[in-house]
Amino acid sequence: MKKLIFTAFALAAIAFAPNTFAQTKMVGGAAMYPTKNIIENAINSKDHTTLVAAVKAAGLVETLEGDGPFTVFAPTNEAFNKLPEGTVPTLLKPENKALLSKVLTYHVVAGRLSAAELMAKVKAGMGKTELTTVSGGKLWVMQDGKKLYLVDEKGGKSWITIADVFQKNGVIHVVNTVLMPN
Fold first, then answer.
1. 3-state SS string over 112-133?
2. How many CB atoms lie within 10 A of CB 14?
3. Helix or strand or coil: residue 144?
4. Helices marked H in 35-167 — which ranges?
5. Which of 2, 141, 154, 160 has the fewest CB within 10 Å, making it most exposed?
6. Residue ranges per domain, the chain?
């Protein structure tokens, strides 16, 4: 009887306790905690060291630590490696801070848009939906089966490889290609 009562209390505690493990995703070998902000999580991802360096060089750390909410389409190191040789070192130079900032803020949309919300917008938009980025540019979200992808202003395509990495101040969707504004 004691074991049954203990089990009932244990199950009740599990049912009513906040389950942060269910909301925590792994990105770049690190747990992404919904109680941390975008920057606090991103610095732990081995797959996003180039993005973090670029955010620092562009002076956007404080912004992405802010309240938001933000939807960030976060390119991986591999995505940055797809750019023409020399592009990343050139963008990271102090004299190119404005251009770097434009490229990075092109990956950010105001609000917290989950994959389900993006999918609903795509279906309502007859196969695609247009998003306005923080930089003022346009991105189009489309669907292929159960996968979402983005098309940038230059026609480049980037797949969302990890969706719904929720943060205290928004959500990150990991993408496999750097999106480029006009």
1. CCCHHHHHHHHHHCCCEEEEEC
2. 9
3. strand
4. 38-42, 49-58, 61-65, 77-81, 87-91, 97-105, 115-124
5. 2
6. 24-175
Q: What is the rounded CA–CA span in Å between residue 65 and residue 50?
A: 18
- Whole-number Å distance between alpha carbons of 55 and 57: 6
Reported residue count of the chain is 182
Superfamily of domain 24-175: FAS1 domain (2.30.180.10)
149 pairs with which residues across the strands? 142, 159
pLDDT single digits (tens) 33-85:
999 999 999 999 999 999 999 999 999 999 999 999 999 999 999 999 999 99
d(CA 159, CA 81): 16
CA 88 to chain CA centroid, nearest Å: 20
Bridging pattern class, strands 30-32 and 70-75: unpaired
Q: Report CA-CA distances (Å) from 125 to 111, 128, 132, 142, 159.
A: 19, 5, 15, 9, 19
The amino acid sitting at 40 is E
